[in-house]
């Protein structure tokens, strides 16, 4: 009788609240918003702290190091101890990082804050993504689409809000972090009230899986992997160097302009991830990669023209095609990956993504410091376009191979 009562109590407390799913989506959006928070402020850091382009890209790219560490380790940890402890620890780490931004007076403090935020946000993306499946286990594809939309909307809202605060606040390098810290503290209270979503947590020894890919999905993985590398390389440069570049090209000195450029790009990405979710993942990804090639060429032309309207229109196009490319490649990989290999395949996928976000961004920053961002940007756009072309070709040849193999199976 006592055992039955304990089991009933455990099942009752393990049952997620009705608002849990929505809270987890908001949490993911807020976390990714924090990742983009400094983007509209980088031009101020460059001007007031006399930071070079390579310094800005190092500050940006070190985020990927922390996020990569989380992507490779947090899944097994949250399986063993539960999602809630991981989420609580990550939110506390975000608050510590925001505190570092508030008191920062040197570049190394910005780097440390970004490293903390990378680890914390990577942990939230992994643990909250798993928690969404705990809460709604039958909605895997829909969960992926909604989380992608939430991530992009979080960046759009946070960046635009930070830009507005920086534009009209008396202390633009402090007020945005205070506002976001309040929002994170409120979210921490909400997560503390959340029932543990992962009722089947093992409590066993934590085993970190090595990233690997089953041989029968190697071609699919390379299609998705090259796709995420190209897309995230574009994302890295456009969130670090591009804001100052658009200011220089158009003559706009206002921070709100930078916020608008980043916000329309990420909002467009969210909208087209929703649109792409209604179509075949591979086809959506191929269309996105081809569209990214056109949009990258458009970015070079828009900057050369100095037209504000052209820069905004191209930012919308870049966001839309990025949303199709990234969302499609991720949904395709989720569709073909065996259930027992999801953890190690996703680790390998995000390994590619975070490396592509960090390394090309730092290289672009170093070259920009030596030759100027406006000189280097067209070459970066061309290299990224070649990567997108490679992903599109792999997708198209893979599609034809699947068509020819179908009669054999029959």
Automatic annotation (TrEMBL):
It comes from the Bacteria. Residues 17-402 form the Major facilitator superfamily (MFS) profile domain. Keywords: Cell membrane, Membrane, Transmembrane, Transmembrane helix, Transport. GO terms for molecular function: transmembrane transporter activity. It is a multi-pass membrane protein. Gene3D superfamilies: MFS general substrate transporter like domains. The chain crosses the membrane at residues 19-37, 49-74, 86-105, 111-133, 145-169, 175-200, 221-242, 254-274, 286-305, 311-330, 351-371, 377-396. It is found in: Cell membrane. Its main location: membrane. GO terms for cellular component: plasma membrane. It holds the Pfam family MFS_1. The keyword rRNA-binding does not apply. This is MFS family permease. It comes from Gordonia humi.
């Amino acid at each position: 009788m006592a055992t039955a009562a304990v089991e009933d109590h455990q099942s009752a407390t393990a049952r997620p609240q009705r608002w849990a799913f929505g809270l987890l989506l908001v949490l993911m959006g807020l976390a990714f918003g924090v990742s983009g928070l400094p983007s509209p402020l980088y031009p101020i850091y460059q001007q007031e702290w006399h930071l070079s382009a390579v310094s800005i890209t190092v500050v940006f790219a070190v985020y990927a190091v922390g996020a990569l560490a989380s992507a490779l380790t947090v899944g097994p940890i949250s399986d063993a101890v539960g999602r809630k402890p991981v989420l609580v620890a990550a939110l506390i780490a975000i608050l510590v990082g925001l505190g570092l931004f508030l008191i920062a007076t040197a570049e190394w403090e910005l780097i440390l804050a970004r490293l903390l935020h990378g680890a914390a946000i990577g942990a939230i993306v992994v643990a909250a993504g798993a928690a969404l499946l705990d809460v709604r286990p039958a909605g895997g594809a829909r969960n992926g689409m909604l989380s992608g939309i939430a991530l992009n909307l979080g960046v759009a809202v946070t960046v635009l809000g930070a830009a507005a605060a920086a534009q009209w606040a008396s202390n633009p390098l402090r007020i945005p972090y205070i506002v976001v810290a309040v929002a994170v503290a409120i979210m921490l209270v909400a997560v503390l009230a959340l029932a543990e979503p992962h009722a089947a947590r093992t409590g066993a020894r934590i085993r970190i899986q090595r990233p690997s890919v089953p041989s029968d999905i190697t071609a699919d993985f390379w299609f998705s992997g090259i796709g995420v590398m190209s897309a995230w390389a574009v994302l890295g440069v456009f969130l670090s160097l591009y804001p100052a570049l658009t200011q220089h090209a158009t003559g706009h000195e206002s921070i709100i302009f930078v916020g608008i450029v980043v916000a329309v790009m990420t909002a467009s990405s969210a909208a087209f991830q929703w649109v792409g979710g209604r179509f075949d993942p591979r086809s959506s990804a191929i269309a996105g990669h081809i569209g990214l090639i056109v949009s990258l060429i458009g970015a070079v032309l828009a900057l050369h023209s100095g037209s504000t309207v052209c820069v905004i229109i191209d930012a919308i196009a870049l966001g839309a095609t990025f949303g199709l490319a990234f969302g499609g490649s991720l949904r395709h990989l989720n569709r073909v990956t065996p259930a027992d290999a999801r953890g190690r395949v996703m680790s390998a996928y995000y390994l590619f993504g975070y490396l592509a976000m960090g390394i090309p961004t730092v290289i672009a920053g170093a070259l920009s410091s030596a030759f100027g961002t406006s000189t280097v940007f067209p070459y970066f756009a061309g290299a990224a376009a070649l990567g997108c072309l490679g992903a599109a070709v792999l997708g198209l040849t893979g599609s034809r191979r699947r068509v020819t193999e179908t009669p054999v199976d029959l």
